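Quick bug: Protein N-acetyltransferase, RimJ/RimL family output formatted oddly.
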Amino acid sequence: MHQDDLLDWHAAVLPSPRTLQGRYIRLEPLDPKRHGDDLWQALQGPESDPALWDYLPYGPFDQRADFDTWLAGNAETRDPLFYSVVDRRSGQVQGLLSFLSIVPEHGSIEIGHVAFGARMQRSPRATEAVFLLAEEAFALGNRRLEWKCNAANQRSMRAAERFGFQFEGIFRQHRVVKGRNRDTAWFAMVDHEWPALREAFQRWLAEENFDTEGRQRQRLEALRG
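Here's what came back:
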């Protein structure tokens, strides 16, 4: 698309706090009363990922009361709009993520505030959580879905590329987070790319793509071809 092309453009629809159903997980609007205990265990418990909070602007939380206050604040906002990740098999809440930077008049929206428990990381549940939000973003009429992270956060950078976001550059000295400089890496996928990306996600998440021990047969990147 040329930058000066005229568009038959209609603003995107704002996301609403509703449940999104997948094969492995469902995304529920964050409810601290129902989700808080599981999230505390997943994100702060003895088996949680010690590196989880390294590049997030909040956490870790030493006190449950501080964690509960943080959850309550997240549940009240609509930008960001937070979802809890519920494992359909066990019913456990294993992580959080959100929509943010929601600009419907330009059809732009971001996935961020990703905090997945250790049991969820590098699993079909993590991939499906991102897929469900991407599906929702483009179904709402957005033209652009963003992913931003600290440029030092190699895990997030690799994840963005694996999911099919294209790297767009670095904003140098973009933020100060926890007293440290943050250079921000920008990634995005756009609406005309989504049909092929969607097909690859669906093929990767299909039951037949995993062996009896849950190991993938084909990588997501390979399925994009």
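Actually, after a second look the formatting is fine. The chain has one domain: 20-210. Closing.
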